[in-house]
Design brief:
The complex is a heterodimer.
Chain A: H1 2-9, H2 14-60, H3 66-89, H4 112-115
Chain B: H1 2-6, H2 8-23, H3 25-28, H4 31-48, H5 54-67, H6 85-94, H7 98-109, H8 113-117, H9 122-127, H10 130-141, H11 146-153, H12 160-170, H13 175-187, H14 189-200, H15 203-206, H16 218-235, H17 240-255, H18 259-283, H19 287-290, H20 293-321, H21 344-356, H22 363-388
Helix pairs in contact in B: 4-5, 5-18, 6-18, 7-12, 7-17, 7-18, 10-11, 10-20, 11-12, 12-13, 12-22, 13-20, 14-20, 14-21, 16-17, 17-18, 17-22, 21-22
């Protein structure tokens, strides 16, 4: 048996431990490298997308006076803070029940039209 | 009364009552059955009263009671008797059918985001496998054969399904003891790990705050199971049933188009298989085949393997920190989570971390090595099967 042969050559199991841990480490490092590489690509892609969106917004947005712009920022910050406060402090849930409509794709599998026999026609 | 017993009908009834008495548990009971029933009751007490992994300990505990009701052979009721219902259910354990199904469910419940956002945590999942190979070496020293030592070693991975999968291939005769030891110590993770974690870390290290995780895109979540499966399965094809099911379950969850399948895999299906695996593993501890010195040694080795695994994880994080810049350092208290007891080991990291700093939440960081441990132990099982099978 392979196991017995292995133990004969490695009676204390040290070689097995070293080889096996190295293989586990290698397999996980392979995943690590691929995720890391892919993650960096995704981050770069997201940054580029955000930069592009910001440039497009800057080009289309009308120029405002700096004072007015500052005021707008303050209002936005205050609104955000109020919204966060309201969302975090609520004690009672709204009792409105919402029903999600389930849209079903038509399937002839159980269609009634196929189950109804054709009406006999007199010749 | 005496005349009745002396009559032919009376002696016929008395004879039948005697036969019935010889079939009862009271007639066949041995000290071994009584001891195992006591173990089963302790499992039930730990699961119900102490709430230690009740999903595992309650079915296993009751399974131990079922398996240790004494009976005469030939009634086709025992788990080891061909033709009995329990024997049919045990087939799933013996042939390694249940573990991959459990892995499918685990994959469908697991969120790999923590790992994807900080992939270096994967290496902790590899370091913790020291527990498996430490126990393998000790088992060899205790006189177990190569295949038996491999099956005993896998207890250190803290992964019940993987332990059952490997033991059913390498040492089916030790399966009951190995499975019981693996599941018992998984339930005892909150007791075994904290002292080792405290012993190996300094006050300063326990307070390390880890960098918040980045947002992971859906594309990354979808690609992870595909890439992860291809890379690991190509390295260890012998772990294909476990790795394939784990990553497929995760793809069902993350793809977003197979919600019903993911819900079934992570809900009703894993529940059914958990009941069956717990019950049959428990019932397989029939005193007549279970109570041996080998079983007791396996229990001892299992405990040691958990200590070695925790040591490996925490020490490896300390070693990694030597090379990481300030701000990128990893809190060594998540090192223990590299064992694949999900999410119990991650919860231990969180609890120990909070006991030193009430605002330092380590749970999500610890989930990274925890799920890496699941992958790592499956890969380790594949290696042992490849070398010793």
């Amino acid at each position: 048996m392979n196991a017995d042969l292995f133990v004969q050559r490695d009676p204390h199991g040290i070689i097995m431990a070293i080889i096996a841990i190295s293989i586990v480490m290698m397999a996980l490092i392979l995943i690590f490298l691929s995720i890391k590489g892919f993650g960096m690509l995704m981050i770069r892609f997201a940054e580029r997308k955000a930069a592009k969106a910001a440039t497009a917004e800057a080009a289309t947005a009308p120029k405002r006076k700096p004072v007015l712009q500052k005021m707008e920022e303050e209002i936005a910050a205050a609104a955000l803070a109020l919204k966060m406060y309201q969302e975090e402090q609520h004690i009672k849930e709204s009792t409105v029940i919402t029903i999600n409509r389930a849209s079903r794709v038509y399937s002839p599998w159980s269609s009634k039209i196929h189950g109804i026999p054709a009406t006999p026609v007199k010749n | 009364m005496f005349t009745f017993l002396q009559s032919s009908f009376g002696s016929f009834i008395a004879e039948n009552l005697g036969v019935f008495w010889s079939f009862t548990g009271f007639y066949n009971v041995t000290w071994g059955h009584a001891a195992m029933i006591l173990v089963g009751l302790i499992f039930l007490w730990l699961g119900i009263s102490k709430k230690w992994e009740p999903m595992l300990l309650v079915p296993i505990g009751f399974g131990i009671l079922i398996g240790n009701i004494p009976f005469s052979m030939g009634m086709e009721v025992g788990i080891y008797e061909e033709g009995s219902v329990l024997n049919y259910l045990y087939f799933g354990v013996l042939k390694g059918v249940y573990p991959p199904l459990i892995f499918l469910g685990i994959g469908a419940m697991t969120d790999f985001s923590a790992l994807i956002s900080n992939p270096k945590l994967l290496t902790i999942g590899a370091a913790v496998q020291l527990g498996i190979f430490g126990a393998y070496m000790l088992a060899l020293a205790c006189g177990f054969s190569g295949a038996e030592a491999g099956a005993v070693g896998i207890i250190g991975g803290a992964d019940g399904p993987t332990a059952i999968f490997l033991a059913s291939r390498l040492a089916p005769e030790l399966l009951g003891a190995i499975a019981i030891a693996a599941y018992s110590y998984m339930a005892l993770v909150p007791v075994i790990q904290p002292p080792v974690m405290r012993m190996l870390t300094t006050e300063k290290e326990r307070l390390i705050r880890m960098r918040p995780m980045r947002q992971v895109s859906q594309t990354e979540k979808i690609l992870f199971p595909i890439i992860g499966f291809l890379l690991t399965a190509f390295v260890v094809p012998s772990a294909l049933p476990l790795l394939g099911m784990l990553f497929m379950g995760n793809l069902l969850k993350e793809s977003g188009v197979t919600k019903r399948l993911a819900t079934t895999a992570s809900g009703p299906m894993i529940d059914i298989v958990t009941i069956l695996i717990g019950l049959t593993v428990g019932a397989s501890t029939q005193a007549t085949t279970f109570l041996t010195w080998k079983s007791l040694t396996i229990f001892g080795l299992g405990a040691v393997s958990f200590f070695i695994a925790t040591f490996g994880g925490v020490a490896f994080v300390k070693f990694l920190n030597l090379f990481l810049k300030e701000g990128n350092k990893i809190n060594p208290l998540i090192g223990n989570a590299g064992v694949s007891a999900v999410p119990a080991a991650a919860r231990v990291s969180q609890d120990v971390g909070l006991s030193y700093d009430k605002t330092n939440h380590l749970l999500m960081h610890a989930m990274g090595p925890n799920v890496a441990g699941v992958i790592g132990s499956a890969v380790a099982a594949g290696i042992l099967l490849g070398f010793l099978g």
